[in-house]
C-alpha cells in the first residue's frame, strides 16, 4: 500500500515535539482541520490536551478513526 511513516515536528503548548504517522493519517488530519476551519497544529494540540496517558501518535490515529466513524454514521455521510 506504500503508507510509509512520516515524522513531522510540531509545536504543542509552546513545546516542539516530533510525531510519526503514516501519510494517510497526516492527510486525514489536514482534511479534518480544513472542515473545522483550524490548523493541523491546533487540531493536534486539542488531541494532545484530551489524550490522557495515551501515546500522542496513537491518540491521533484513534481521533481520525473516531472522526471517520462519526461521519459514516450520519445519514448524509458528512
Which runs of at least 5 residues are low in confidence (pLDDT < 50)?
none
Characterize the quaternary organization of these chains.
single chain
The secondary-structure element order is: EEHHH
- Major sheet details: 2 strands, antiparallel
| Shape designation | globular
Which structural class is indicated by helix and strand composition?
A: alpha+beta
| Secondary structure tally, helices | 3
Q: Termini, distance in Å? A: 26 Å
Question: Rg, please?
Answer: 13 Å
Strand order of the biggest β-sheet? 1-2
Q: Strand-residue fraction? A: 15-25%
- Percentage of helical residues? 40-55%
Number of strands: 2
Query: What's the rounded overall pLDDT mean?
Result: 91
Q: What keyword list fits this structure?
A:
78 residues; alpha+beta; two-stranded antiparallel ribbon; 2 strands; 54% helix
